Amino acid sequence: MNLKLIVEDKGDRIDRWLSKHILNISRARIQKLIQAGNIILNNKICKTKKEQLIAGDCLEVFVPSPKKLELIPEAIPLDVLYEDKYLIIINKVAGMVVHPSPGHENGTLVHALLHHCRDLSGIGEVQRPGIVHRLDKDTTGTIVIAKTDFVHQHLQKQIRDRVVEREYLAIIHGVLKNRENNDNVVNKGVIDLPIGRHLIDRKKMAVMPSEKNGRKAVTYWKILERLGNYSMVNFKLGTGRTHQIRVHSSFLGCPILGDPLYSSNHSFNINLSGQALHAHKLSLIHPVSSNKIEITANPPIEFTKLLKTLRRKTTN
């Protein structure tokens, strides 16, 4: 698809202006088109998303046709919580990577979805067709996937605008405290600390000031149950940074049990396959019907067994 546009208004930053004036193309997609040299401004290749437009500027936008997926569908069983012709919500199991990456070339959720849905080609990125958000490999629970490009962009906008609500259950070391009332143990609070890539260990994220590329990250928490030296907590995302809940809870001295990256406390004597973190509830507005959809996924057996063990130890 090739488009020619003339800026007739006051103008704006080029990525913002184009995302407002081209239907069904997100701002993130526009930025990638700029990086690929597919946007021409006044007969010259635009090199930055921060280019300021003025009235009279001439733009040419080249949108490549979707690449044919080279991924091979795999008949991997899926726990489908909700599905229609526009979207599907899955209860992801522990150990399943969401999309292909180095070291995880097959067996991912994407491979399973390609077999289940058959029509995801061209939705979003080539290696992440239909993927709106992600869950870490060993985090279980609800994840939504779009079946059309319109729904994909609509759901991503809902996430950016904080319309989508994502709630998690976790079992953590210790008891979280409200940082503003550190002397008093309270049952709920908010963690508002920026997160960025760890400066030394690039596999990890860390609480990082904005001047070192930390991005705003907000997590709401509520203690559901105290279990001796541990707690079961409800976490609600205000933003969606990589490893956000895991980083925030660890930074406050209460890492999630079984977390291989952010927990240094290995005193617990139960074998866990990964962090005890479960995406319990997902709420969104259906992009086509405008109805509210609220889906809940029960925690996996390993999580419930851990909870029963801790309750038993607490009462003994």
Automatic annotation (TrEMBL):
Its EC number is 5.4.99.-. NCBIfam families: rluA_subfam. Responsible for synthesis of pseudouridine from uracil. Residues 12-77 form the RNA-binding S4 domain. One of its GO terms (biological process) is enzyme-directed rRNA pseudouridine synthesis. It comes from Atelocyanobacterium thalassa (isolate ALOHA). GO terms for molecular function: RNA binding; rRNA pseudouridine synthase activity. InterPro entries: PsdUridine_synth_cat_dom_sf, PsdUridine_synth_RluC/D, PsdUridine_synth_RsuA/RluA, RluA_PseudoU_synthase, S4_RNA-bd, S4_RNA-bd_sf. Keywords: Isomerase, RNA-binding. The keyword Chaperone does not apply. This is Pseudouridine synthase. The keyword Methyltransferase does not apply. Pfam families: PseudoU_synth_2, S4. It catalyses: a uridine in RNA = a pseudouridine in RNA. PANTHER family: MITOCHONDRIAL RNA PSEUDOURIDINE SYNTHASE (PTHR21600), RIBOSOMAL LARGE SUBUNIT PSEUDOURIDINE SYNTHASE D (PTHR21600:SF44). The active site is at D136. It comes from the Bacteria. It is an enzyme of class 5 (isomerase). Belongs to the pseudouridine synthase RluA family.
